[in-house]
């Protein structure tokens, strides 16, 4: 999940709202840019070398996304558009034949061939390379072998190069939404030069995307990353400016001050401390608020006795109905969130705000008290506290406290947040199934699909199923959706799967994320895509 | 004197090892799994996690990890941080920035602190003295991040006299505003220390003698009063240099200065043992050297102090 870290970084800024807003570099060197139409934008220091299969956080992700072009890209609404792919064909959702467009080149002149993709994917999946995005390849036949510990095998059996412009992919099982994933940067092609020294390549990556690095060493660590348009680019994301210079900040407060002083052109996140006043600070026409494919929830683990069985089900519903979502989104986030009505996000194709059973996500204190009393008859709750574990370096404290208070006031039980100092600490407790109460969970889509919100988080044994949820009917509905013949049929099955989730409530959805972006007086045509990332290539300078 | 300095250097060795051991132990004891955190909310393929742990020696027991670190230290190989950058390169980037920032802040607080302190001391109880006392009290009472944000907003955004954040190169002129913020609180202390010290020495016998000998007022003030009043101030400034370098996290954060404090903060959050220990080691060295310098300065300021 590419933006997993975002919450942490956003959070950093928030935890730090007063004391530690963090830093990076930025400023200085790029001011002469006014003459040409170079746009300056904020980012964070990439946490890894800029290798597509190893970049899983937003700071490096947005750069890699501009440096590389995959088989497909997503338009602003999240619809797939063929880029390097001429066609992606399948008859059974299991075997795919991918044909590439002619005359595609990397910026070092090498041609983009079928091997550029196959080699890059094999590299990404092999355990010995320890790539952070290796799980993206887990659907491909042979992944299990190359990703096993000490595996000698380096090539997935499901990938076969037919000729320079054609390769075939065999999946382990049918997955109708698999082609949709191919726009994610992990699936980018790599030039041959990369494999000789991946570390050096990650410092000065050579791609085939709309932009390229502005020369060797254009990535100055903790300071900036300068990109210029790739003159050979032929895809749909043609740059409308003369380059993007990403100034590196590790918090948003300092970047926001730069934005106010027109020292930075684009800020993709308004810091929490300025949420209340950014509209007046910037003025009409210099900001944008737009929902994107992410949501926030609290997961209640299925392995805890008090949340099992009939009483557990009643309690889960009571908790959900006791949370005043509209009030909290208004007061805590100044409207910067939208109350959730299901488990995915409104920008995803197939979203349905009125899934059967969704009334359980509406604030209904009387019903909540009634359900809680019913559960108490089956099995008394006693004077236990309802806790919500979260990482306190993530800027979550305010809303966790508000949710806990809402539950406390409506149900009359003790409810409180349970902070852990770091993201690492709370993740360790979650993955080792040591939670004693609820857990804050956020999900941001890797690719625009309902399944991406449901499968990885609620499928039996799935990677991010922190609550250990398992329901055979739900799993069956997911499989039905994946092997569906048409996207519409898939959507129907996925939303039926959501009906089961609304019944079981393995997690209590809270709200959808909204991206707030601000820009300087010098730029125009700023918009964000389905995933909340600014559409950098279409920004123009006034 | 030379022997004294050599002995002090020898004393540094156990201090250095003790401190690095302690810091390494603290980092080792941090709760949470840094490798898991690299993957965000995703479950990690155990094979990949093992591979990464081995790469950073995280699969070894504490003592082995520490000795591996020491072994690398001897060969001037500080290891890599979690993004694969050599820690030595990171140090070479962040320290010059913070050193510039600390020197500017130290100059600012020393020059203005001593000048204002001397004037206030010589005019004890008068208007200037009162104003300085009240002003320094206010500065000490306001938390540094409030001062930082206010200065950034007023000077950087509203007046536009300086950039609100530090430029890419973090050069001397870019760092003036952050250095003033960083040095403000210490400035207040330096003023108060100097003032008290001056007042104390004003009534000393040797000052009366100097004046009676017919020396000019400036000479009495600079050579006799000031020099003898400097010992507590120098002690404070020496200790402050270490604090300015390691404690600039807040200021560096506000002004987006790519320095030591920021890097340290991030590394602690990510649980990057080698980076944290390396940065702290250098800070310890700076601290020890600054203290040594202070002790040597004592002897110069007050010839009665002898080292052997």
From TrEMBL, chain A:
<feature type="domain" description="Solute-binding protein family 5">
    <location>
        <begin position="80"/>
        <end position="464"/>
    </location>
</feature>
<dbReference type="Pfam" id="PF00496">
    <property type="entry name" value="SBP_bac_5"/>
</dbReference>
<protein>
    <submittedName>
        <fullName>ABC transporter substrate-binding protein</fullName>
    </submittedName>
</protein>
<keyword id="KW-0732">Signal</keyword>
<dbReference type="InterPro" id="IPR030678">
    <property type="entry name" value="Peptide/Ni-bd"/>
</dbReference>
<dbReference type="InterPro" id="IPR039424">
    <property type="entry name" value="SBP_5"/>
</dbReference>
<dbReference type="InterPro" id="IPR000914">
    <property type="entry name" value="SBP_5_dom"/>
</dbReference>
<feature type="signal peptide">
    <location>
        <begin position="1"/>
        <end position="24"/>
    </location>
</feature>
TrEMBL record, chain B:
<comment type="similarity">
    <text>Belongs to the binding-protein-dependent transport system permease family.</text>
</comment>
<dbReference type="InterPro" id="IPR035906">
    <property type="entry name" value="MetI-like_sf"/>
</dbReference>
<feature type="domain" description="ABC transmembrane type-1">
    <location>
        <begin position="95"/>
        <end position="298"/>
    </location>
</feature>
<feature type="transmembrane region" description="Helical">
    <location>
        <begin position="132"/>
        <end position="155"/>
    </location>
</feature>
<keyword id="KW-0472">Membrane</keyword>
<feature type="transmembrane region" description="Helical">
    <location>
        <begin position="99"/>
        <end position="120"/>
    </location>
</feature>
<keyword id="KW-0813">Transport</keyword>
<protein>
    <submittedName>
        <fullName>ABC transporter permease</fullName>
    </submittedName>
</protein>
<dbReference type="Pfam" id="PF19300">
    <property type="entry name" value="BPD_transp_1_N"/>
</dbReference>
<keyword id="KW-0812">Transmembrane</keyword>
<feature type="transmembrane region" description="Helical">
    <location>
        <begin position="233"/>
        <end position="255"/>
    </location>
</feature>
<feature type="transmembrane region" description="Helical">
    <location>
        <begin position="12"/>
        <end position="30"/>
    </location>
</feature>
<dbReference type="InterPro" id="IPR045621">
    <property type="entry name" value="BPD_transp_1_N"/>
</dbReference>
<dbReference type="InterPro" id="IPR000515">
    <property type="entry name" value="MetI-like"/>
</dbReference>
<keyword id="KW-1133">Transmembrane helix</keyword>
<feature type="transmembrane region" description="Helical">
    <location>
        <begin position="275"/>
        <end position="301"/>
    </location>
</feature>
<feature type="transmembrane region" description="Helical">
    <location>
        <begin position="175"/>
        <end position="191"/>
    </location>
</feature>
<dbReference type="Pfam" id="PF00528">
    <property type="entry name" value="BPD_transp_1"/>
</dbReference>
<keyword id="KW-1003">Cell membrane</keyword>
């Amino acid at each position: 999940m590419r933006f997993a870290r975002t919450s942490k970084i956003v959070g950093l800024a928030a935890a730090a709202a007063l004391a530690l807003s963090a830093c990076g570099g930025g400023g200085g060197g790029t001011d002469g840019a006014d003459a040409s139409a170079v746009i300056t934008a904020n980012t964070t220091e990439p946490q890894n070398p800029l290798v597509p299969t190893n970049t899983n956080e937003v700071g490096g992700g947005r750069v890699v996304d501009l440096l590389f072009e995959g088989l497909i890209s997503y338009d602003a609404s999240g619809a797939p558009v063929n880029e390097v792919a001429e066609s992606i064909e399948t008859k059974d959702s299991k075997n795919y034949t991918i044909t590439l467009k002619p005359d595609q080149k990397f910026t070092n002149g090498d041609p983009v061939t079928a091997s550029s993709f196959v080699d890059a994917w094999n590299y990404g999946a092999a355990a010995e390379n320890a790539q952070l995005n290796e799980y993206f390849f887990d659907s491909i036949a042979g992944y299990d072998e190359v990703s096993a510990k000490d595996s000698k095998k380096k090539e997935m059996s499901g990938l076969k190069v037919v000729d320079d412009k054609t390769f075939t992919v065999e999946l382990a099982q049918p997955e109708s939404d698999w082609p949709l994933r191919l726009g994610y940067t992990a699936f980018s092609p790599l030039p041959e030069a990369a494999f000789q020294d991946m570390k050096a390549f990650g410092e000065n990556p050579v791609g085939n995307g709309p932009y390229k690095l502005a020369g060797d060493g254009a990535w100055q660590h903790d300071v900036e990353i300068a990109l210029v348009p790739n003159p050979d680019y032929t895809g749909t994301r043609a740059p409308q400016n003369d380059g993007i210079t990403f100034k590196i900040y590790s918090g948003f407060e300092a970047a926001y001050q730069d934005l106010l002083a027109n020292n930075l052109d684009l800020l993709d996140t308004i810091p929490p401390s300025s949420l209340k006043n950014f509209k007046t600070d910037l003025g009409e026409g210099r900001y944008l608020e737009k929902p994107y494919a992410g949501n926030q929830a609290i997961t209640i683990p299925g392995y805890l006795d008090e949340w099992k069985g009939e009483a557990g089900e009643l309690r889960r519903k009571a908790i959900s109905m006791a949370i005043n979502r509209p009030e909290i989104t208004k007061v805590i986030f100044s409207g910067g969130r939208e109350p959730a009505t299901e488990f995915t996000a409104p920008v995803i194709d197939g979203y349905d705000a009125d899934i059967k059973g969704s009334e359980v996500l509406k604030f209904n204190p009387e019903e909540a008290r009634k359900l809680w009393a019913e559960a108490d008859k089956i099995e008394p709750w006693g004077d236990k506290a309802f806790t919500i574990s979260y990482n306190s370096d993530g800027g979550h404290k305010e809303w966790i406290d508000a949710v806990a208070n809402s539950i406390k006031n409506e149900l009359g039980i003790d409810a409180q947040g349970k902070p852990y100092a770091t993201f690492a600490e709370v993740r360790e407790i979650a993955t080792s199934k040591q939670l004693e109460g609820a857990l804050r969970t956020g999900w941001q889509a890797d690719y625009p699909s309902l399944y991406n919100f449901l499968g990885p988080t609620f499928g039996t044994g799935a990677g991010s199923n922190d609550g250990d949820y398992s329901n055979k009917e739900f799993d069956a509905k997911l499989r039905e959706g994946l092997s569906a013949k048409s996207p519409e049929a898939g959507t129907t099955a996925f939303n039926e799967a959501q009906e089961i989730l609304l019944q079981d409530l393995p997690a209590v959805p809270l709200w959808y994320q909204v991206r707030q972006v601000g820009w300087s007086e010098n730029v125009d045509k700023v918009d964000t895509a389905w995933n909340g990332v600014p559409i950098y290539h279409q920004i123009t300078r006034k | 004197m030379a022997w004294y300095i050599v002995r002090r250097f020898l004393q540094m060795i156990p201090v250095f090892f003790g401190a690095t051991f302690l810091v390494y132990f603290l980092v080792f004891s941090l709760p949470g799994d840094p490798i898991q955190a690299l993957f965000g909310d995703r479950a990690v393929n155990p094979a990949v996690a093992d591979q990464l742990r081995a790469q950073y020696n995280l699969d070894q027991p504490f003592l082995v990890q520490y000795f591996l670190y020491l072994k690398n230290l001897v060969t001037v190989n500080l290891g890599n941080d979690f993004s694969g950058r050599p820690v030595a390169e990171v140090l070479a980037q962040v320290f010059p920035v913070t050193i510039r920032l600390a020197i500017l802040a130290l100059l600012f607080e020393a020059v203005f602190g001593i000048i204002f302190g001397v004037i206030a001391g010589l005019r004890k109880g008068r208007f200037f003295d009162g104003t300085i006392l009240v002003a320094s009290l206010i500065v000490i009472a306001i938390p540094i991040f409030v001062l930082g944000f206010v200065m950034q907003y007023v000077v950087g955004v509203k007046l536009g006299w300086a950039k609100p954040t530090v430029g890419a190169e973090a050069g001397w002129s870019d760092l003036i505003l952050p250095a003033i913020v960083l040095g403000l609180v210490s400035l207040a202390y330096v003023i108060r220390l100097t003032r008290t010290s001056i007042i104390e020495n004003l009534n000393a016998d040797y000052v009366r003698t100097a004046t009676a000998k017919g020396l000019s007022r400036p000479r009495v003030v600079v050579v006799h009063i000031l020099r003898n009043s400097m010992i507590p101030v120098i002690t404070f400034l020496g200790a402050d240099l270490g604090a300015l370098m390691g404690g600039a996290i807040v200021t560096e954060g506000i002004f987006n200065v790519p320095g030591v404090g920021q890097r340290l903060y991030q590394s602690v959050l990510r649980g990057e043992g080698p980076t944290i220990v390396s940065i702290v080691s250098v800070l310890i060295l700076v601290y020890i050297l600054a203290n040594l310098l202070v002790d040597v300065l004592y002897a110069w300021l007050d010839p009665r102090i002898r080292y052997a």
